[in-house]
Amino acid sequence: MLRQLGQILEMIRFSHTLFALPFALLAAVMAWTTPTATGERITFRLTTLLGILLCMVFARSAAMAFNRLVDRQLDAANPRTAQRQLPAGILTVRSVVVFALGSSLGFVASTVLFWPNRLPLVLSLPVLAFLCAYSYTKRFTSFSHFWLGLALMLSPVCAWIAIRGEFVLSTPADISPAVILGTAVLFWVAGFDMIYACQDIQFDQTARLHSIPARLGVVGALRLAACCHLGMVLLLLALPCVVPRLGGIYGCGLLATALLLVYEHWIVRPDDLTRVNVAFFRVNSIVSVGLFLVCSVDLILG
After folding, report:
1. What is d(CA 67, CA 70) in angstroms, rounded to the nearest whole number?
2. What is the mean predicted confidence (pLDDT) over 39-50?
3. Closest CA to 77 of 208, 226, 170
4. CA 223 from chain center: how many Å?
5. In angstroms, rounded to a whole number, what is the distance separating the alpha carbons of residues 5 and 95?
6. 101 falls in which pLDDT band (50, 70, 90)?
7. Using an 8 Å Cβ cutoff, are 185 and 23 in contact?
8. d(CA 138, CA 35)
9. pLDDT at residue 15 is higher than 70
10. Nearest-angstrom CA–CA distance, 279 and 263
11. Cβ neighbours of 83 (radius 10 Å)
12. What is the C-alpha to C-alpha distance for residues 8 and 278, in angstroms, rounded to an integer?
């Protein structure tokens, strides 16, 4: 049983929760350290932090398991993904379905930790449906990368709502820090997903799947990805306008992030995609964790 659980966690790339989780935690730190429109501060609650962690883990696990179920036949036909657990027969469809349902129930159940704020519970099913719907997007639109970006954008926005939900509807401007951060995440994810999708350009074209590389070619996809990452940097540059506590430490972190993104595009070239995994996994992990650390330190000490 433990071995099967290990295979399931490997299947959903559990370690890649690291991409979105730091931004949810960063939004939480901003929510706790930024005064509301009335000058109040939100009291830190350990149960809220636990709720954010559990919701992130369960939501991503459910969405990834669902994605593997929906794509299992495509994965079997793609040489790059044919050895994944479902097409290779290492895991059964039933076990993955059970895991996906269990993760979905865990996600919805975890929202009670935000009580008396009812918005997380009310929004849990629509959010879960949106996350799972991504699995079908490449069948009908080349903008599937942006749908994935929107899915990860929800992590900081939902964390903010979970902590300050009672203020969001009454004062729309109050959510602007999370929206700016979330939109930066959207462009960041869409950009690196385009880079990653360049590996499957021939398969996507043969299988009539939609993706930016399949539509624009590798050169066009890398250029659009670079534009997305430029948009991310510009949005992060604007973040101190709504979160004045961000200062020099954040500025240094943002500069380092911009340099890392430049490095990511330098090592992935149209005629050499051998280092896509380095760009996708290592560089982006450093970006997400690094931004969380420098922003949190600046907000707490500022």
Report:
1. 5
2. 88
3. 208
4. 21
5. 9
6. very high
7. yes
8. 41
9. no
10. 8
11. 11
12. 23
Alpha-carbon distances of 214 from 142, 203, 274, rounded to whole Å: 8, 9, 18
Domains of the chain are 2-301 (1.10.357.140)
Q: What is the 3-state secondary structure (H, E, C) of 244-274?
A: CCCCHHHHHHHHHHHHHHHHHHHHCECCECC
CA-CA distance, 67 to 78, in Å (whole number)?
A: 15
Q: Which residues pair with 269 in a beta bridge?
A: 272
User: In this predicted model, what pLDDT tens digit does every residue of 269-298 receive, in sequence order?
Assistant: 888 888 888 777 888 889 999 999 999 999
AA identity, residue 117: N
pTM as predicted: 0.92
**Inter-residue contact 218 to 265 (CB < 8 Å):** no
Angle between helical axes of 21-33 and 176-197 (0-180°, round to 10): 170
User: Amino acid identity, residue 45?
Assistant: R
Closest to 145 (Cα-Cα) out of 182, 183, 194, 188: 194
- Residue 240's nearest CA partner among 44, 25, 34 is 34
Confidence tier at 261 by pLDDT (50, 70, 90): very high
- CA distances for 14 relative to 7, 123, 236, angstroms: 10, 24, 27
Mean pLDDT, residues 32-56 taken together: 87
Please give the radius of gyration of the chain, using alpha carbons only, rounded to the nearest integer: 19
Q: How far is CA 69 from the centre of its chain?
A: 20
